[in-house]
Amino acid sequence: MYSVIGSGVAGLAVASELASRGAEVQIFDPAGPPGPHGCSWWAGGMLAPWCEYENAEEPVLRLGQQAIAWWQARTTVERRGTLVVAARRDLPDLRRFARRTEGFREVDAELADLEPELHGFSKGLFFENEAHLSPRKALADLHAGLVARGVAFHTAPAPEGLENAIDCRGLSARDALPDLRGVKGEMLVIRCPDVTLTRPVRLLHPRIPLYIVPRGNGVYMLGATMIESEDRRRITARSMLELLSAAYALNPAFGEAEVLEIGVDLRPAFPDNLPRIRRIGGRIYANGLYRHGYLLAPALAKGVADLALNNIHSEMVDEDRD
Amino acid sequence: MKRFYGTELPNPLMLGTAQYPSPAILEQAFRTSGAGVATVSLRREGAEGAGATFWKMIEDLGVRILPNTAGCHTVKEAVTTAHMAREVFGTRWIKLELIGHTDSLQPDVFQLVEAAKILTEDGFQVFPYTTEDLIVGERLLAAGCEVLMPWGAPIGSGRGLNNPYALRAMRAEFPDVPLVIDAGIGLPSHAAQAMELGYDAVLLNTAVARAGDPVAMARAMMGAIEAGRLARDADPIDARDMAEASTPVIGKAFLA
What we know:
The structure holds 2 protein chains of 2 kinds.
Chain A: E1 2-5, H1 9-20, E2 25-28, E3 46-47, H2 49-52, H3 58-64, H4 67-72, E4 77-78, E5 82-86, H5 91-100, E6 105-107, H6 111-114, E7 124-127, E8 131-133, H7 135-148, E9 152-154, E10 165-167, E11 181-191, E12 201-204, E13 210-216, E14 219-223, H8 237-250, E15 258-269, E16 276-280, E17 283-287, H9 293-310, E18 317-321
Parallel strand pairs in A: 1-2, 1-10, 2-9, 5-12, 10-17, 16-18
Antiparallel strand pairs in A: 3-8, 4-8, 5-7, 6-7, 11-14, 11-15, 12-13, 13-14, 16-17
Helix pairs in contact in A: 1-7, 1-9
Chain B: E1 13-16, H1 23-33, E2 37-41, H2 52-59, E3 64-68, H3 75-89, E4 93-96, H4 109-121, E5 125-130, H5 134-142, E6 149-150, H6 164-173, E7 180-182, H7 188-196, E8 201-204, H8 206-209, H9 214-233
Parallel strand pairs in B: 1-2, 1-8, 2-3, 4-5, 5-6, 7-8
InterPro entries (chain A): FAD-dep_OxRdtase, FAD/NAD-bd_sf
Protein name (chain A): FAD-dependent oxidoreductase
Keywords (chain A): Oxidoreductase
């Protein structure tokens, strides 16, 4: 029996992978089923390894490409690509983005066919193979899938000395992982039925690269700041201005949107912003998904299952000791 | 090399700590380049120790820390941020940045002089981010600054030294004041040019942090700074309009 501690995207993905390989699994999370207490609740849900490569290391590009198929087997994945645009004055940023990424084609006239309601943009990059999902639905689907397999969810704290424990507590695992830090992210959920965007759109800007992800029924997620701060209490006025300005720049009709939710949380990250698997004293720690929760959780889960079930050390394993 | 408020720096490269792909890459950029000063922003990371983990990483670089007031638009904000910086990093050094214009991030030199005076009286050692204006430079020195940091070009623009004429004049006007080119550097050749002009140090961030390979770019910047400084000390030749043969030609057979 494997005991997964934590039911955020990391814990549920690990449990799902283990269960799909025939292992017996139970899950401990005193906070209960997935909800606003975990940072994966607030994620964008973009499966965008090619775009992320602009500012991430190579494993994100390679391992992230496994994510789409993994999630398609477990939840609804929208495969409509990602559109990257920049205002005319920031076109150098678009050129740089193009130089540093791959898997896109440049679009100009086609932009209006792809997203007719983008307002005032003449050039963009279309990453056709990227996808997105709804994080809350994905968590709920993983949860339901595990329950259907008979996996027990315990809201009691995990007992001491649990055998075959897999610790997926995110930032709460700092007690055992001293090189883990929190990176603040802020996001908004808005409703604006007047504007129709059908795929994630990234707006490049020298200081504030932001994205908008359609959630259906006129609801959009606007994200996300990245601040080296561990204050998860609330959003700053500056961040809210930046997020809303980005939406407004994509289409001024977003000015009439209702603000439904404000999300603030901390992403667990190691110093190189790449995830890690560690086995220390018999307990496996899987952590550090940073801003790539949904993108890298499948690779993390496979790595944990390889280690736990077959003693195979994938590239994410950086420590294995008693 | 001139001393900065009595402190001798190991070399003339001051490197910012924002916008790197990860703290690990930031650390490598410092280690590989050997930059001796790290500038750190406090404004966004927030009060009450919320940025403490990141700041600890910067402290662990083991280099001199120059906190800044990036993002401040008023004297009051800048003074508050400077006090916070002094508490967090235990240093009297403060890079004073007072933004006057949102698009160009041009310093508001009037508020800059005012804030410099307040902070100097409070015991701070102020590194003012200013323009190449000589009179503003004089006023800053009169306010108690012992270092001037004129911009090369707007922050993050990577345009290099927009006004070499004025920067040369500034060097000539303040021969004994440590001068740092702060902002606008995009390429190592820009940094070399600053050193060739006789500047004492170069402060940059975006050009390294946002390069495709920040670690390699940090090294390149250090190499260029070293080249520029050596060239300056080597008394370069003056440019001339006509060719001057490096070998005397009179009396050579081919002239016959």
